[in-house]
Fold IS30 family transposase.
Amino acid sequence: MSYVQLTPGERYMLGQLLKQGLSVPKIADQMGRHRTTIWREVRRNVRGNDPLYRWYEAQERSNGRRSRSRRNRRLSDEDLALIERCLADKWSPEQIANRGALLFALEVSHETVYRHVWRDKRRGGQLFRHLRLSQKQKRKRYGAYDSRGRLAGKRHISERPEAANQRSEFGHWEIDTVMGSPDQHCVVTLVERSTGYTLIGKLRDRSAQGLTRQVISMIQRERSGSFKTITSDNGTEFHSYKDIEQATGVIFYFATPHHAWERGTCENTNGLLRQYLPKRTSTARVTQDRCDFLARELNSRPRKRHGYFTPEEMRRAA
């Protein structure tokens, strides 16, 4: 395992534990670090004429060393080509910086990637179009009757198992539809909460019957035991959920109306999908093969919450 420098939070914790009089081995155990790492940090930052360890001064010295070590480094043409390939694959600058270090030994910060993108834009380039841009327009519904959620017998999200809430096991999914325009064609997304693993299905319309058939097919194509629960919003396309439960044994739960954050995993994934299926564009020509390709694209993108491992890698480890 490669050495990872102490974070500012770890340096603060080290300072507090030293004040309490703990020994270096005990501090290392509490911090989950090798004691050599702690010895090295203390030796670097405790002077003979000032025996106190001040975490903020230690952090400033660390920043200075890192800055000096990289001051004269320039990205090669090969590095820039790699960055641009990752951008074309819809990786964010932060994903490029962190996953690039793991896969390609690419040493670059996400700020540097952004600078390269904006420099390219000033020169007339198109790299910026690969970035995820949020242009969602929100509107309030004044005076309109809202029928969402008016379906008897639904299980509220508050009844969902704790394992689903805590993302502690594989098999708890969120579901949503992503609309095209101006026709009725759309896609349905299923996103697993613990890994972010995504399935995408094509729908010719947003009807409950069409969605039910597609979701049953998607579940049955997966390995046995992959689905335990599904959480959805209150759209009418999910009103035949009992047919899905009966056919697959999966239990449905419904979020509170207008509480999109209760299905944050799916909302975030749909935002990533919009990079490939922009709003106000038709999905009539999107085939199931295309949906499967887009799912593979999303499942092979590194995620920050997984330490820049991909959903596919996390699923294999589940």
Remarks:
- The radius of gyration is 25 Å.
- The chain is about 45% helix and 10% strand.
